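[Discussion] Sanity-checking designs against the backbone

I'm trying to build intuition for which residues belong where. Below is a structure token string of 208 positions. I'd appreciate it if someone posts a full sequence so I can compare it with mine line by line.
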């Protein structure tokens, strides 16, 4: 059991930096998705009533985005160790290059070492920026997750929304959802009123 736990903890210990950079991009997209979904949430009362006809679906989308971000951040935290190791690797390489160069007397060899030092210094700076970006994303994600938790659907658990499309729904005309409560703002046009309006639109009948 202890061995399995150790393997899980070291799952990403030796991940390459290209994978880390790619995943950082992915987490940023997931983070922006949560921010977008949270900003779309309509106002609701303590019973879940809203003038928005698809309020519950929007809250469900926000919850799903929050779960996706929590999962991504959990994995991202495991990248801290390999990122720190990459920084240390670059630091040690720079020290060795500088030390070895001091022992050289040939100008051409010194030039080659200078080029190697510049290349390693570039990697070192990239590693430092990568670590900075990683911690900034984690910090921002934690903040947005806390904000998202404050916007809850009052009636309780939300049903998973698989086919709802907020973009297409925004153009449809739907009676506002009110969880079974009567909607006094919605008014059906009586049949006789429709007939009168139709006759009026036809204009005068008969006459010269």
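Best answer:
Here's mine. Compare freely.
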């Amino acid at each position: 059991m202890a061995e399995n736990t150790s393997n899980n903890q070291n799952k990403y210990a030796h991940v390459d930096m290209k994978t880390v950079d790619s995943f950082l991009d992915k987490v940023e997209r997931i983070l922006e998705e949560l921010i977008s979904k949270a900003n779309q949430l309509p106002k609701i009362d303590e019973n879940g009533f809203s003038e928005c006809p698809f309020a519950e679906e929007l809250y469900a989308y926000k919850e799903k985005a929050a779960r996706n971000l929590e999962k991504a951040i959990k994995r991202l935290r495991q990248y801290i160790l390999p990122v720190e190791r990459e920084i240390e690797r670059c630091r040690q390489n720079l020290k060795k290059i500088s030390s070895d160069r001091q022992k050289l007397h040939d100008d051409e060899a010194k030039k080659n070492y200078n080029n190697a030092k510049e290349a390693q210094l570039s990697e070192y700076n990239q590693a430092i920026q990568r670590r900075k970006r990683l911690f900034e994303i984690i910090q921002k994600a934690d903040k947005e997750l806390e904000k998202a938790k404050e916007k809850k659907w009052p009636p309780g658990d939300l049903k998973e929304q698989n086919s709802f499309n907020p973009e297409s729904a925004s153009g449809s005309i739907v009676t506002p959802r009110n969880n079974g409560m009567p909607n006094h703002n919605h008014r059906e046009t009586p049949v006789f009123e429709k007939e009168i309006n139709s006759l009026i639109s036809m204009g005068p009948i008969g006459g010269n």
